[in-house]
Design brief:
By secondary structure, the protein is mainly alpha-helical. The chain is 32% helix and 6% strand. It has a two-stranded antiparallel ribbon with strand order 1-2. The model is unreliable at 107-115 (pLDDT under 50). Keywords: Hydrolase.
Length: 132
């Protein structure tokens, strides 16, 4: 493909700059692990209309394992769309496209379950009940 940027000097400079800025896998870091990043991933794939040379925020530094998981889940034909399973040490979903983070439909929708958020006063009641 003539428009593929990966063999260009411009991409190599951008890749090197991203890995210098983020030397650790961004997904593994969210899991509390320190793993060296070897790949620079387009957050929005070029094939999906993303820019070939995005700004740094349009790129993600990933280890080989996380890059393969993301590519197989999202970027290849027939991918199921679940890129990263699990939650980080902060309790938030690791997948930046998870509905919880994007404000989309509840992940439980369509499975016969009804997702309900606790009442706003629940946390303060628990604190009061325990005398903390």
């Amino acid at each position: 493909m003539a428009d593929w940027p990966y063999s260009t000097a411009r991409w190599q400079r951008l890749r090197k700059a991203k890995l210098s800025e983020s030397p650790l896998c961004e997904t593994c870091e969210r899991r509390g692990r320190k793993v060296e990043a070897q790949h620079v991933d387009h957050i929005v794939a070029i094939a999906a209309g993303g820019p070939a040379f995005p700004v740094m925020d349009g790129l993600r530094a990933l280890c080989a394992s996380c890059h393969s998981i993301k590519t197989n889940a999202l970027d290849r034909a027939g991918g199921k769309g679940v890129a990263i399973k699990g939650c980080g040490v902060d309790g938030l979903p690791l997948d930046p496209d998870h509905p919880f983070l994007t404000g989309g439909d509840t992940p439980l929708e369509g499975r016969g379950a009804v997702a309900q958020r606790p009442a706003a006063h629940t946390a303060s009641q628990l604190v009061r009940d325990w005398g903390v």
